[in-house]
Amino acid sequence: MSEIFYMNGYGEYIWSAYSFTLISLMALFLYNYLSLLKKEKKLENLQGKNEQ
Amino acid sequence: MYIKLPNGIIDSLRRRLPIFNIATLIAFILGLYYAILNSPPDYLQGDSMRIMYVHVPAAWLALSSYSFLALSCIAWFIFRNPIFNLFAKSIAPIGALFTLIALVTGSIWGKPTWGTWWAWDARLTSMLILFFLYAAYIMTWQTIVNKDLAAKISAALGIIGFINIPIIKFSVDWWNTLHQPATISKLSAPSIHISMLTPLMLMTFAYILFLVTVFLMRYKIETLDQKILRVSK
Which of B76, B106, B182, B226 has the smallest set of CB atoms within 10 Å of its CB? Predict the structure, then answer.
């Protein structure tokens, strides 16, 4: 198991590259996912108001 | 001239967003399994070349995304159909992030391999310019209040930046650069062993799925914005 972390001395480079990639991809996904939910709710509220 | 657009296709894809989410996740898990655990180290670069599995797909898609953005801008100039602006606006942040990932992971790989984090070499510099082009495109929409003007300026910017794409692609052949030339080419058999091609292709597939998923989400956000604007008027 420790071999996977060590990666023949390249561990710190490999793991920092992979974590940067995955964290930034996840951040972009979540940011857009949350703003999509927010916009949907906003539109619903506006349409509800117009009907009243 | 007004052309009929494949709105139906985009809508039906959008309704399948949960499927895309799950498919993206599975593709990444599979790709990472091969990239980290089930592929051999390179005979020259050792384990550090595992960084290529996240670096190369990001760089490929950064260029493809920009081409898509520039073609959308050209289409907007010809047809003046706002949907092309939505296409370009939806893909821009994804392409920008892919460019950033290519730059950062390339830099992390460069330190143990070339002995430096950064060099002002043709490939690296042209990729940095690509990042600034994406940033400029996004900022044009955010800073210019008059949306008609923003559409014109951003589209012009997107088209001018298109010049950079062949420069990036051929920079490794035209100039003496630190960056190695392409391993995978359409015209010849790839000079890479199947054990390394498998994780590379799986990761590329995962990145493409990610791109499509986020693109569909962003496209939906853009159309919701327009609806909100119409309703609140």
Answer: B226
CB distance from B97 to chain A under 8 Å? yes
Amino acid identity at A1: M
Hey, how many other C-beta atoms are within 10 angstroms of the C-beta on B173?
10
Is B138 within 8 Å of chain A by CB? no
pTM score of the predicted model: 0.92
Nearest CA-CA partner of A14 in B134, B81, B105: B105
Give which of B197, B165, B158, B10 is closest to B71, Cα–Cα. B158
Q: Contact at 8 Å (CB) between B82 and B5?
A: no
Find the CB nearest B54 among A10, A17, A32: A17
In total, how many domains does chain A have? 1
Token pair, residue B152, equals 């014109």
Q: For residue range B39-50, what is the model confidence (pLDDT) as tens digits?
A: 888 877 888 889
Mapped onto helix, strand or coil, the DSSP state of residue B233 is: coil
Structure tokens at B194: 């199947």
Helix axes B122-143, B52-79, angle to 10 degrees: 50
Token pair belonging to B136:
């400029």
Q: What are phi and psi of B42, to 5 degrees?
A: -75, 145
pLDDT surpassing 90 at residue B84: yes
**Residue A23's domain spans which residues?**
2-51
Residue B151 has pLDDT above 90, yes or no: yes
ipTM: 0.91
Do B131 and B99 meet the contact criterion of CB atoms below 8 Å apart? yes
Q: Determine the residue of chain A that is closest to B17 in CA distance.
A: A33
